[in-house]
Amino acid sequence: MTAAPTVKPSLALGILRALRPKQWIKNILVFAAPAAAGLFDQGDIFFRTLVAFVCFCAASSATYLINDAMDIQSDRRHPTKRNRPIAAGIVPISLAYVLAAVLLLAAIVGSFALRRDFGFTILAYLVNTTIYTLWFKRQPILDIVSVAAGFVLRAIGGATATALPISEWFFIVTSFGALFMVAGKRAGERAELGEEASSIRPVFASYSPEFLTYLRSVFSAGTLLAYCLWAFASAQESGNASTLFQLSIVPFAIAILRYALLLQNGKGSEPENLVFSDRTLLISGAVWAIIYGCAIYAS
Predict the structure, then answer these.
(1) What is the C-alpha separation between 23 and 249, in angstroms, rounded?
(2) How confident is the model at residue 154, as a pLDDT?
(3) pLDDT tens string 108-123
(4) Residue ranges of the alpha helices (H) in the chain?
């Protein structure tokens, strides 16, 4: 009895997978600044933020294509990354570079057409990801800072696209939160790869489990402390909503502690999947959003 022939995925489906649309969920961070400012209900602000989201999706997909094309050899040795369309040979490297160039041009032109400051934010994001691909990803600590900077630039992009001032507390909480998530991602990846971690990604040779645990502790503590200070500062500046700002600390802390527990259990290599697959995280996040939203619009 002959085995059924293996069906190779189509080029169109391979291109779609190579763009990593699942990763676009990270770009929702561009909505953070307008939402925190209580201006999300204004049509012009919402439209500009939506355009900023699309620009970041184009820019991030372009960087994913370039990164996968450059890392094709190491990806083919990885237990899961070898199934990526470029590493699997579904999408030719030349085509990946052409698509990346088109998406980069669209992101840059669209961002500067929206607002000059937002265009510079997109450029900063692209420079950061390029340096990460070429150098930082092989440098201990710098690789974590660079990936976290990508999250922070997304959050800043929401402010620059809509001409909103960036709160120092917003910047601090976002920065520590991003560092916490990326440190957890590295810990999860190292746990999944096991003894082959350093051969697949050399930077893991510098990251012991104890050191990654230390980083998670520092960054999670920084996130919680910064948010508490932000909440109390917001309460002092507001009127009727002061209690709500303080109350929002509870679900926020639960979400951070729950995420830390999941990381301790070896999860976290794919934060975008972890956040939306855990019921406790979803509920605590939703409760926080409701309380904080009421505080913003009541103040």
Answers:
(1) 28
(2) 94
(3) 999 999 999 999 999 9
(4) 11-18, 32-36, 43-70, 72-77, 93-114, 116-134, 142-162, 168-193, 197-200, 209-237, 242-247, 249-264, 271-275, 279-298
